[in-house]
Amino acid sequence: MGGMFKEQDWFEYLEPTMRDLVEEAYYLLDREEMGAEELVDYSFVVFPMAKAYEGFVKKFLHNIGLISEKTYLSKHFRIGRSLNPSLPAKYRNGWWLFDDLQRMCEKTDDAEYKKFPRLMWKAWREGRNMIFHYFAGRERLVSLEEARKLVDGFREVMEMSVKCRVMLKSPKD
Questions:
Q1: What is d(CA 99, CA 97) in angstroms, rounded to the nearest whole number?
Q2: Going by C-beta distance under 8 Å and a sequence separation of 6 or more, which residues neighbour residue 130?
Q3: Among 56, 47, 143, 157, which Cα is nearest to 113's?
């Protein structure tokens, strides 16, 4: 399975543990697609990729200068809070980064990258928050087809991130 992504820039950008999680997500997808039984919920297939994505986003934000080494290593830094474009103003502090990322992306000439902060947030919200939280009366069960779309969605955002990180400069520049 490791050769599946070998030498792709986005995969090489990942830390070894993140690579293992990506490979595990695709292994689970392949295994479940070949399985004879149909399960009620395939959220478990998405989880390794969501975990890898969380680590990836933290590394990415650190590498483009939006968070310090201390924040990158912090147990208190939350991706969901930092990338949420709708976070109420009273919760926006130094770790709310959506606006900083938006300003950085607006400097690029490519319209696709101007949408990048919202794509990062959408992948996080749909592939992690909406999957792994339980809301009474609004349970979300994930089909195998949807699990593949979510895993592939994380991969696509990571690919895009690695391609665009060279265009992004710190908002202080």
A1: 6
A2: 140
A3: 157
Residue 67 predicted with pLDDT over 70 = yes
Read off the pTM: 0.88
119-133 average pLDDT score: 87
- The identity of residue 91, as a single letter, is Y
Report the distance separating Cα 36 and Cα 107, nearest Å. Answer: 50
Higher pLDDT, 165 or 87: 87
| CA neighbor of 158 nearest in space, from 3, 1, 29, 25 | 25
136-161 mean pLDDT: 90
| CB of 121 closer than 8 Å to CB of 87 | no
| Domains located in the chain, CATH noted | 2-164 (1.20.120)
